[in-house]
Design goal:
The protein has about 180 residues and is mainly β. A hairpin with a 2-residue loop joins strand 13 and strand 14.
Length: about 180
Amino acid sequence: IITKAHHEKFCIYNLKYDIMIGEYEFNYGDDHGATICFGNQFYNENDLFPLLYSSAAYNQQNCIYVYRLHKVNDEYKLTRVQTIKLPSLELTEQHYPNMMIDNEKELMYVWGYKKATNGLDEENVITFSTYKLPRFINRVEIEVVELTMDDMISKFTIPNYQTSQSGFYRNGYIYKYYL
């Protein structure tokens, strides 16, 4: 199963059988869905899909949203269950934040531009940081987890390549797409 984001819509594909399982839309106006990926924790042990992580990619939110994709009356429904608030943009230097998940090590990689502009600029590097992936606990209301700079495990930069959206983590490597 793989996810593909296009603004507020995404699709889930079964690569084994080469079929699209469905197309979904974030029904929350504050989620751009710039980068989405599945974690390895399930909301409910009977759910078919693990929790889905989505970066809002807007400076105003500065957070990662976590969703449950579950079946309701023969249709899959997307429900927000957790909000992970990132440390301030000024401290992290990660404007327009995106993320990806390392399920094996239970880490979350967050990246964004050093400055609040996304044009090509040698000084406007892309800053990556690593956090322990917050576990989902609350099943009653939308859980809010606030990360601080003390939660940051590491930080590094790469040159600016015009866009910071999309990518995935696999076998110790971060793969980024540049449009």
